[in-house]
Amino acid sequence: MADHKSRPEGDEKPSYDIERDATSSTDDSATIHAPAPASGDTDGRSTADHEGKTANPDSALSQSAEAEASAPSDEPEAGRTKLQTTVIVGSLCAALFLSALDITIITTAVPTIAQEFRSSAGFVWIGSAYTLANAACVPIWGKVSDIFGRKNILLTAIAVFWVGSLLCGVSVNMGMLIGARAVQGIGGGGIIVLVNICISDLFSLRQRGFYFGITGIVWAFSSAVGPVLGGVFTSQVTWRWCFYINLPISGVGAVALFFVLKLHNPRTPLGKGLQAIDWVGCLTIIGGTLMVLFGLEFGGVNFPWDSATVICLLVFGAVTIGLFIFNELKFARYPVIPLHLFRDLSTVACFVLTFCHAFVFISGSYWLPLYYQGVLGVSSLLSGVYLLPYAVSLSISSAISGWLIRKTGNYVYLITGGLAIMTLGFGLFYDLPGTPNYAKIILYQIVAGIGIGPNFQAPLIAIQTNAEPRDIASATATFSFVRQIATSISVVIGGVVFANEMDSQRPRLVEELGPSLADQLSGHNAASNVGLVGDLKGDEGRIARGAFLTSMRTMFIVYVAFAAFGLAASLLVRQKRLSKDHKEHQTGLKTLRSRTDRSPANNDK
């Protein structure tokens, strides 16, 4: 909900009045009742403290909302047993685990895959093809689930992911593998966003903090076991099992969800549902995102930064994104991303820090194994084991944060404190040694992991407290979109920085190692030839490892800068009370029409 001080006169009515009107006219609108007081609800940035200084409409709004909260309501949480809740959440987490695992399981396998297919350029794109397709399709999955219902679309996403995993496993060349990874990413994006949306539909704001904390553990657990599993499969069997492992797990997860997940099914006719999708918005956001990322990927590696190819990709990508925004504002009846979500400064700050957090987090899971293999000279399996302190500390931190949100109702201190520690942790990565020093390696990862944990889902709680009930699904999808875009860009930019830095060291490598070895360790060839570094002995090995370490330190400086920017943005996040009351959300075209009729865009027309 946008702050009343920044709302233009004549804009939409306060959210509680809108929701009360909506529930009186149709059963298809969802109500989340007014917040009940909770300990630890406010801090120095609390809106209650700030707004209570003057008389304003929000005081009457609060009284009206509290009266509404005291009325009897249909609370789905009270109608479920603990066993039912456990089975539902467990099944959702199993589905999420699949999608999250495929971001990290290939980190230790990528050098082997790139070497087998003799494709140095594929080193980055094996990872980014998945995360890019994942991110680009997230808003579409969220909107389609609004139209056709959560359960059906979640099962569809799992099916797409299953097909993509099968194609990855049987790939015969790098092009086929990258295409199959994109199919995987499309399904994985649906899984990621729909798990969060389903939890939002199932639980009140106060309870969501706890269950979102559990999903944070899933992300952390996948980060921990992914590289290890990838290393085991690559060294002991074949890298193809990084994808085959998804087939039985996704099948069992889909069957479990089919039987246990009980959410509203609108039974929307296929034709009418497809007509309701904002296809122009979908195409422009996907096209614009792809062009920008291709421009970043090609710049300084395949083409000079000032080449026509790179400039055109970046410029036309930006223009296409501008067309997307224009379409969402003026023409889209059911926007992919409702832009009125960005009217509130606290919400914008949450999206910014979410981007920075995801941008930095994925770099640890993706690039630390390269440090272990290229600088310390360990195997792909051991590089996954070395990553465990990072993932375990992250998991514990996420779990504690979810418990604290449910216990105290406070999320602001967790967001800001986590980002501060994350900035410190990644700053320490600059000091990672060129020879094994296990005290530093373990300690630095623990500090970084503790900082990352709280911000897996705490920003989503902050975003949902500022969103009106009818916009919860769109806000959640936008949150997931920002997070996945950040991971896509992070892998690409990290690869570009590393490749450019290795290329800048080429003259020295030519002098010390000769032109043949220098070519293999320069630019975008370096990451895919990381195994070569381990085979070099004496001074040659020392020089090659030193070049890798120098390049990785430059890369970590970039990630520290993003972490610091996210920390600055977190200072603008406001604390609000977290309600314990909840009513299940109703999906379908009838609900969408009700929202559109009351939307700010329509009120302005």
From TrEMBL:
InterPro entries according to UniProt: MFS, MFS_dom
Topology relative to the membrane: Multi-pass membrane protein
Biased composition (Low complexity): 58-73
GO cellular component, one term: plasma membrane
Xref: Pfam families: MFS_1
Region named Disordered: 1-79, 582-605
Transmembrane region(s): 87-110, 122-141, 153-176, 182-203, 210-233, 245-264, 276-296, 308-326, 347-367, 387-405, 412-430, 442-463, 475-499, 556-573
Bias-annotated ranges (Basic and acidic residues): 1-22, 42-53, 594-605
Localization, UniProt: Vacuole membrane
Gene Ontology terms, MF aspect: transmembrane transporter activity
Key words, A-Z: Membrane, Transmembrane, Transmembrane helix, Transport
Record flagged with keyword Zinc: no
Stretches assigned to the Major facilitator superfamily (MFS) profile domain: 88-578
Role, per record: Efflux pump; part of the gene cluster that mediates the biosynthesis of dothistromin (DOTH), a polyketide toxin very similar in structure to the aflatoxin precursor, versicolorin B. One function of dotC may be to transport early-stage dothistromin biosynthetic intermediates from the cytoplasm into vacuoles, thereby affecting the rate of dothistromin production.
Family, as annotated: Belongs to the major facilitator superfamily. TCR/Tet family.
Name listed for the protein in its UniProt record: Efflux pump dotC
